[in-house]
Amino acid sequence: MHNAHDFLLAMAMVLCVAAVTSVVFQRLRQPVVLGYIIAGLIIGPHVPIPLVADAAIVHTLSELGVILLMFSLGLEFSLRKLVQVGPTAGLTAVIQCSLMIWLGFVVGRAFGWTPLESIFTGAIIAISSTTIIAKAFDEQNIHGKLREIVVGVLIVEDLIAILLMATLTAISTGAGLSAGQLTLTVGRLALFLAGLIGIGLLVIPRTVRAIHRLQRPETLLVASVGICFAIALLAQSFGYSVALGAFLAGSLVAESGKEKDVEHLVQPVRDVFAAIFFVSVGMIIDPALIAQHWVAVLVLTVVVILGKLVGVGLGVFLTGSGTRTAIQSGMSLAQIGEFSFIIAGLGLSLNATGQFIYPIAVAVSAITTLTTPFLIRASGPVANLVDRKLPKPLQTFAALYGSWVEELRSAPPRQTAGAKIRRKIRLLLLDAALLAAIIIGTSVRLDRMAAAVESWIGLDAPVARMLVIGLASALAAPFCVGVVQVARALGTLLAETAFPAAEGRLDRAAAPRRALVVTLQLASVLIVGAPLVAVTQPFLPGVLGAAVLLVLLVVLSVAFWRSATNLQGHVRAGSQVIVAALAAQSHQDKSEAHHGKDLKTVHAILPGLGEPTPVRLETSSPAVGRTLAELNLRGMTGATVLAIRRGEEQVVVPTANEMLRAGDVLALAGTHEAIDAARAVLDGSPPPEQAAPA
Fold first, then answer.
1. What angle do CA 686, 690, 694 make, to 5 degrees?
2. Would you give the DSSP letter of residue 538?
3. Using CB atoms within 10 A as the burial measure, which of 137, 404, 548, 619 is most buried?
4. pLDDT tens digits for 356-402?
């Protein structure tokens, strides 16, 4: 037990050193989080500086920082917001975690680690740090859609981490993991969440509103923090993380409508203990261990940054959020943190990994924590660079794809189509499950089946093994083909929901529908194939599963490129119609309202152009006198300029060097959010997500 003097000494040392380093880093215009980590390095046991704090006390206090940070984050995300970002976050988290688990396993095997150590390595680098991202977003004042998507992905990742820990425990203890055990684990988690949210919605919002009516801030603070710690403790008692419980507590308090008052009261307390958390991260950095395993640390750090950028970026883009948001989300999530320590510690406690895994996880976490603020800050310029370097067909596709997904989500539900879509999804999952069962079952029982074939037919052992593998491959091939075919059928059904086929002979929606079909097919194969490869990798030689998936994606990418090229022609034809519509209207009425009414007719005639919206440039617009390249409208907002009407002139699919002038009428295409942001840029006002105060 620690006495009051030990706690006081630890608190004084942590906060005083952190105060000095944070002031220094603020003067240097660097993130304060880095100052806290350096403070931890100074007072930690691994650096020869005569300032050493009690690591056990600091770790205990840091847990409070995690809980309060997650509670504050939950206050910003009511349950309604979480439901809205659920599909995007869920699919993105599945793709990203599957990719990282596979990469971690491959890297571990390349270093000569055991299969079990490699599996743990994949799990360690799969989960990003909610605490680190929350603090970095607060420091850089990031709000709006980007924050909502990133936090949604983090919450789903935490749920995946819980399932990973249950799976790894079963594998490490030799008990194995049956389908029944996995179903029980998932069901237990779902029951806990449903019970907590159901009862919490009935009790917590009413309680917070009643306490708020007392007009006593200290009472509201004490009650809110009490609710936070109580639900965090409840989650821990059920075997889940305190971070998950604290986040749910914040979301339930937010349902009261008094979250702003609670957040204002909790913020000072949160900031103190959050600083202690980051100091504790710095304290566990051991430069000697980093030097000893520097190659593994460097390789895994690169894998974390690049892998999460690709995995998260693909997931966010495919769910319709645009190139800029996709890249910013990927660069924001490029780190590992507290869950990585928990998984690494689990491996040690189960004797499943060597002693070297934990310090490597700590080192990778520390380095990626240091790089996170810089990556978040650089994500905007990187997104602009990517947008400029994309080929023209991909630029056009990226600008329109989000509006297609928007149309798909807002399409009126058709009971017949809905039933067909659900049936295709079930078939897709069934094919993937059977494919995984064949691969894993053959791998586990290969020797036994080869011995049986050898005794029945009298073949040599190597020939018998090859025969079993050949039969298994032949059995798996139809299911592999089935995944591709069902994904195609699913994509067709969804695309026809967004762009119904014309009853007449001329199908003007053919080009966008074809591009959407191929994209959705590619997305379906990726969403199903990535987890399948991650699950089966330990049972296959080399990277056979990944190679098969890569070949499928390459073939689909060729078809995608063709459809994107055809789409470019469709957009050019549509732009000519838009210019003609603007010209016809210019002689009657020059208001945006009349232009917009006319362009709605164009949208009905040529679907897939994202509901073109006219915007007139006034003399006071900051866009006047600048080229589209200088304005970077598409890179900044995701909206694209389809055409420009300039007096009697017309510009169809303008180039990046097109100079904008006062009086120009721009036909914009993209999602409603992208067009609103583009309007704000053209008017000179802040974009919608930045207009609200932090």
1. 135
2. G
3. 404
4. 888 888 888 878 888 888 888 888 888 888 888 888 888 888 888 88
Instruction: Give the range with max mean pLDDT: 14-18, 49-53, 156-160.
Output: 14-18
Distance CA 122, CA 344 (A): 11
Picking from 574, 577, 668, 652, the residue whose alpha carbon sits closest to that of residue 617 is 668
Return the residue matching tokens 């919002």: 205
pLDDT value of residue 290: 77
Contact 354, 117 (CB under 8 A): yes
Backbone phi and psi for residue 299, each to the nearest 5 degrees, phi listed first: -65, -45
Quick one: average pLDDT of 682-692? 56
Angle between helices 294-318 and 79-110 (to 10 degrees): 140
Task: Please identify which residue in the block is written with the tokens 């390595």.
Answer: 121
Helix 179-212 × helix 217-237 angle, to 10°: 170
**Residues 6+ away with beta carbon under 8 Å from 150:** 133, 137, 329, 332, 333
- 331-348 mean pLDDT: 81
Is the distance from CB of 283 to CB of 43 less than 8 angstroms?
yes
Q: Please state which of the ranges 187-196, 200-209, 331-340, 572-581 shows the lowest mean pLDDT.
A: 572-581
Q: Which strands make up the sheet holding 613-616, listed edge to edge?
A: 613-616, 665-669, 640-646, 649-652
Burial class (CB in 10 A: 0-12, 13-18, 19+), 301: buried
Higher-scoring residue by pLDDT: 386, 447: 386
Looking up tokens 């609200």 gives: 692
Q: Are 37 and 284 in contact (CB under 8 A)?
A: no
CB-based contact 663:582 (threshold 8 Å)? no
CA distances for 537 relative to 103, 530, 533, 552, angstroms: 10, 11, 6, 17
* pLDDT of the residue at 264: 86
Task: Please state the length of the chain.
Answer: 694
CB 105 within 8 A of CB 129: no
Give the pLDDT confidence score for residue 694 in this predicted structure: 33
CA 568-569-572 angle, 5° bins: 90
Q: Note whether 300 and 107 are within 8 A (CB).
A: yes
Distance CA 657, CA 472 (A): 57
Annotate 359-417 with DSSP letters as a single string: HHHHHHHHHHHHHHHHHHHHHHHHHHHHHHHS-HHHHHHHHHHHHHHHHHHHSPP-HHH
Cβ-based neighbours of 385, under 8 Å, separated by 6 or more: none
Neighbours of 416 (CB within 10 A): 7
Give the three-state DSSP class for 200: helix
Query: What tokens were used for 34?
Result: 């880095």
- The 3 state secondary structure assigned to 132-171 is HHHHHHHHCCCCCHHHHHHHHHHHHHHHHHHHHHHHHHHH
Element spanning 686, H or E: none
For residue 640, pLDDT over 90 is answered with no
Decide: helix, strand or coil at residue 350.
coil
* Spatial distance between the Cα atoms of 670 and 641, rounded to a whole number of angstroms: 9
Which phi and psi (to 5°) does residue 609 adopt?
-95, 10
From residue 680, give the alpha-carbon distance in Å to each of 20, 231, 403, 637, 645. 41, 42, 19, 10, 20
